[in-house]
Task: structure prediction
Amino acid sequence: MLLFRSEEDVERWCERHGRAPGAVLGAARLWELARRWYGDRLDPGWRPRSVDASQAIFTSLGLTGEFWRLAG
Amino acid sequence: MTERELALRRRIVTAFAETGEPPELPDGPALRSLAAQHVVVLEQAGGAPRIRMAHPFAGHREGARVDAGARTWWGNCAWDGLGIVAALGLPAATVTSHGVTLRVEAGAVRDDAVFHIAVPARHWWDDIAFT
Result:
């Protein structure tokens, strides 16, 4: 997982490393993902999240399809 | 996850939050269990295990740097760096990764960038160092 300035930079990186493009997120959606995924990590009552709950975070941000499937 | 494991995990993330560094801990079954559950990633440092990752925090310096005021933390990638900003409730911070800096102010990210995920989600833990 790497941060780039532009999608063109992502394409150049993929070419240079011989990798097929994966998924890309803009900064605003990445921030929302970070808030929902990690916002509770320092809460005193934190408990591990289920796979279904993690999958629901992806879905809530429109991150659906085979690439974003966590299990199975 | 047992109460003992939850307490150990709490101790680990609190140390990261307060110091930016992983705590030094003795090896033991609770620590190994947290690693088996992907709560921490360990590396060997001399004869003792060292905490390399306790998401979103990183004990290494290869991911994302988070700066707020005079303080610094490290995440494993930009997602984690922003996660540190969220978990700590920082009102303003910068997250720098792979030569790109994102400013977070007043609950919003102020710069454009593109975050690329190379590996499908279900394979992230096949090699958590390359995703």
